[in-house]
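Our consortium's second objective concerns turning raw sequence data into structural hypotheses that experimental partners can test. To show how far this objective has progressed, the report includes one record in full. It was chosen at random from the queue rather than selected for favorable results. The single chain below, 233 residues long, was entered without modification.
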Amino acid sequence: MNINIQLFAGLVELFGTSVLHITIDQDAISIEDLRKLITDKHPAAASQLQTCFFAKNQAYAGETDWVTSADELALIPPVSGGQPTLYEITYDSIDAAQVAAKVNHPNHGASLLFIGTTREMTHGQRTVLLEYEAYVPMAIKTMEAIGQEIADRWPGTLSAITHRLGKVAIAEASVVIAVSSPHRESCYEASRYAIERLKQIVPIWKKEIWEDGSEWKGSQTGPWNPLQMTNKE
């Protein structure tokens, strides 16, 4: 079955075409599986695809809807006037200034930008690069939950988090966290809270690659049980 998906705005530049052609060995496919198929074929577009909706025959379609080659399909990016995506996963280099801009507020007197980068030397061992993978839908949801925890704990505080997946070279950013608040005390506290909480509960895994080997790193803050980790810790 051949499926043609119309693209618009920034998606045309991202994919380099106005119509995405997909061929599958079945007579129908769900929107959920179609999204996954496109993401697998175009991993660099993963973060953008998370914010898009599919249209089937000129109406928005849900993830459980099925489509065939007879359907008119389109991939719809956020329309003008939509809010910026505060919590993102990407395979691309992170633009720190772009993340910081998401939390700009005229009534906030303080803003902080935390940038986590790949460190070359750790306990005398030389790292060549880091590699990250994630359970993307859950990672975004848990980052959104962290943002809500911050808003509840420090009223008026805004936060945005972008995390990179794939290979991240020495000195490149793997995570950028932006926080703004009416007062600096809340801003400092919320920024520290965000990165520590991210390490606790967001399903993102790091592989350290050395000159002579590699290792996937798990929890480095003691016994790991996310069900026992609350926003009061």
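The partners drew two points from this record. The mean pLDDT is 86. Helices lie at 10-15, 31-41, 46-50, 96-101, 136-153, 184-201. Both points have been shared with the crystallography group to help prioritize constructs.
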